[in-house]
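Q: Structure for this?
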Amino acid sequence: MTDSVRKTVRDNLKKRYRAERYFRWFGVISVGFGLLCLVALFGDIFSKGIGAFRQTAVELEVFFDPDVLGVSASAEEAKIRTANFDGLYKAVLRERFPEVTTRGDRRVLYRLLSTEAAFDLQALSMANPDLIGQTRKIWLLADDDVDMYFKYGRSGEQVGRLSEAQQAWAEQLIAQGAVKTRFNTGLFTNGDSRDPEIAGVKGAVLGSLFTLMVTFLISFPVGVAAAIYLEEFAPKNKLTDFIEVNINNLAAVPSIIFGLLGLAVFINYFGVPRSVPLVGGLVLSLMTLPTVIISSRASITAVPPSIREAALGIGASKVQVVLHHVLPLAMPGMLTGAIIGMARALGETAPLLMIGMVAFIIDPPSGVLDPATVLPVQIYLWADSAERAFTERTSAAIMVLLVFLIVMNGLAVWLRSRLETRW
Amino acid sequence: MKRVICSVVLAASVVSTPGIAGARDYISVVGSSTVYPFSTVVAERFGRVTDFRSPKVESTGSGGGFKLFCAGVGENTPDITNASRAIKGSEIELCASNGVAEVEQVLVGYDGIVMANAIDAPVFELSLKDVFLALAKQVPDTSGKLVDNPNSTWADVNASLPAIRIEVLGPPPTSGTRDAFVELAMEGGAKMVDSLANLRAANAGDETVAIMSTLGLSASIAQAFENSKGKAPTGADIFVQIAHAIREDGAYIEAGENDNLIVQKLAANPNALGIFGFSFLEENADKVKGASIDGRVPTFEAISASEYPVSRPLYFYVKKAHMGTIPGIQEYVDEFLRDAASGDEGYLVDRGLIPVPLGESRVEAVK
């Protein structure tokens, strides 16, 4: 009798252990799968994007020929600014490859250098007019096709667009050690461009910052005020229940709808200009408001009632209780919620489509009323461009966006651990 | 805690400093995604070589561009809209009803639409008729009646083509490229089918009804047209309906507006063909190759000389009323029309634009 019971228990136990083991394995496999996907995604982005942080440059002997430029060293600044620097870098290339004589071949030859070369030479001459008439060895920015060829084409990873003649010229320069890659500062200091070699994320980063600033300044105070009222002052009745249900629903509304609302209300009714961070921030703050309210309410409820009662007990008014005790204690949680809401807003493109922030804008914005795009839009625009070199820039921009997100989430974690009081 | 509040206040003061919105001092351009790559290059040059601010360019599609452009006169409406087709009568009316009276049309150049496949895939030599028979929703069967497209491989369409499954990646109906493809390639191909060509030539009334019945089309189609347009359809009206209908059984795959994505998919799938603009073929010449259509390979020269059959003009439209108030519009137009930009050897040509032949007039008022 007892033996059979023991046997049943033993068998049963084995089964239960097995089930437990399976369950654990299943958990490990799920986590492993998630990690694998993440590693694959990051690995892909990093391997594609890392190249964009290096930029190919070509060293050429530049004779700042006053005849080509049409100005002398003693000319005024305005004259130097408008001198023929376009002609200068072309003359330099002709000098370097004297065997290229026909007009068509020369056009192809000029495409070894970026059109930016002219502006670099201009900047050098403006800074030091004495250069005119002298000869210097200068590293000039290579064209994006040369860049692709030097970075990937030679090892056979990619067949680029460089013609055979151009490849021969490039090889000649490479053999003389006149081609190198250098850190791509332009990626961080330039605005958008249609030439991949000079396109940068500065405009998009500033646009994102201005937009998020507006979002924060609107959604945080309004969200916190709404949360405090609903939590501490509002009577519990059907109306407040109705409002609560609606706030929760609003958090789940697809973001494009806020874009349509923004177009109708802010742009068409209030006449806020299109494509500026102000209107982008307004739209995104509508979107993050429910998140801020919900997280703020949660952190207000987390403040122990004993603190409120103690304050009331020594004669504080309701407003004093809230402002002196509840709000400071709930603030870390509120800020964390707000930052997480903002991190979501940072990745949004859909609502911005409706209000004209998906646009090609070259000059980085200097305020909330200048036209601007944001980082995810920049990524979208580059992914859509035909030039091959934009592929690696797209991945590089994704890396910048990820850094942005990690910093914001890091800030949220830091605030929580630094300011949070534990009971 | 105080520090956090301080920083918030500081941030607030930064936001409030850049003054109140003055008059807009940059050009606002909207419109076609096909003209966008050219428009942005010009905008960039313009911002660099002149003292004006760089224009803002949005890609909204041709139709979307006209909607914004024709919304009225004033700072909050765009100054220029790009289009991969000419302005429609209904859009001119919309403009006029919102007070946008004087509009100038500028011909930018031409664009070819190519059908391409992976570089190592079989060579396709198509005719417009092949394209129509492969992609139309309904095609005539041996008895001359219209049936749902039965062709599943290219060899079914034309015995000289490879026997691989028809799989074409193309733009969705919202795209100007799709509009142009349907108008130029599908209509062009349908005209090559005798029974459909007869239908196209038929007058409204009995003649059309007779041809429709030989094609096996029910009279309700004509009735539906009459109900919506208020007049009996001519043969050409019915023809357009048939020619513009692309099959929906999976042989034509809508691949979104992103042409780069189509190129990537083609490189991965040697059996598929893709439909996109010539500039993308040129940029990715090491990955994909264009199919010849009616014996013409899509090359720069063939499109420029209008020999390649699937090519279309690109335009932009300028709101004359803004010329005094927004600085730089005339200069932007001049930059676009300069030989160094859209001439035979201009920088736009390097980007895949097919230039307008010399001597052709490029600027005219819209009436």
